[in-house]
Amino acid sequence: MNVIGIIPARYSSSRFQGKVLADILGKPMIQHVWERAKQAFLLDDLIIACDDERVADVTKGFGANIVLTAKGHLSGTDRIIEVINPIDVKIVINIQADEPLINPIMIDNVAQALLDDQALAMATLVKKIEDLSDLSDPHVVKVVVDKNNFALYFSRAAIPFRAQNSEIDCPVYYKHIGLYGYTKDFLFTYKNIPLSNLERTEALEQLRVLEEGFRIKVIETKYDTIGVDTPEDLEKVKEILAKEKYHAAS
């Protein structure tokens, strides 16, 4: 296989317990993610990697291909590595289980970047920030890139900082969208990189990659998502999907 999509789905969450099973318009959140990801053209297979029988039972109910993994993984990436270890595949796409607004084009864009350039080991997405309130929201991760569209840094703070004497009236800010693509080989390299100081400081695992000296290709998308971290986020998603459903029916 060329490309496989993995949705790591952890039941426990410090901020929102069992959120992957939260109801959104009659379906669990994980089903919305799976149905959208299934529409991506470049995925040869799609697997939900879960750590809890409750998630496994629900996902089996809507026909997903699931793998029950160990509970002790520290991150979704570690869970993915367990799943893909025996699979012959070139590229792995990490699709977040708490982003029910994911657009399948976003998945294809990340996969295509890795297919087109065999020198790349890892890729992800960004979108221009239009709501300036996002700059002060630590749940919205910001990113700055170099002239070749490789990530320089990710932060929960507003970056770049605009100095008072800056000649730029309004810098362009980008939010990071947590959709990742990797080569399978790089995932096993990643597994052996120790947690970094920057990763511990910002609680962002992708900083481990940058601090070790590897590069992350960044692809700009016009599509936006809402990562569901809180019950309030869930209500926002419900409103958006209800409007989409209404417009599709009218």
What does this structure look like?
The protein is α/β, with parallel strands linked by helices and 250 residues long. It has a single domain (3-234), classed as Spore Coat Polysaccharide Biosynthesis Protein SpsA, Chain A (Alpha-Beta Complex), CATH 3.90.550. Helix content is 32%, strand content 22%. It is built from eight helices and eleven strands. The strands form two sheets. Strands 1, 4, 5, 6, 7, 8, 9, 10 and 11 form a nine-stranded mixed β-sheet that branches. Strands 2-3 form a two-stranded antiparallel sheet. Strand 8 and strand 9 form a beta hairpin. Helix 3 (76-84) crosses helix 5. The protein is globular, with a radius of gyration of 18 Å. The termini are far apart. The relative contact order is 0.17.
How would you summarize this macromolecular structure in one to three sentences?
This protein has 250 residues and is of the alpha/beta class. It contains eight helices and eleven strands.
Relevant CATH superfamily: Spore Coat Polysaccharide Biosynthesis Protein SpsA, Chain A
H-E order: EEEHEHEHEHEEEEHHHEH
CATH topology: Spore Coat Polysaccharide Biosynthesis Protein SpsA, Chain A
Structural class assignment:
alpha/beta
Quick check: average pLDDT? 91
The count of domains is: 1
Q: Please report the distance between the alpha carbons of the first and last residues.
A: 40 Å
Q: What is the number of strand segments? A: 11
Q: Strand content of the residues, in percent?
A: 15-25%
CATH architectural grouping: Alpha-Beta Complex
Q: Can you tell me the CATH class?
A: Alpha Beta
Low-pLDDT regions: none
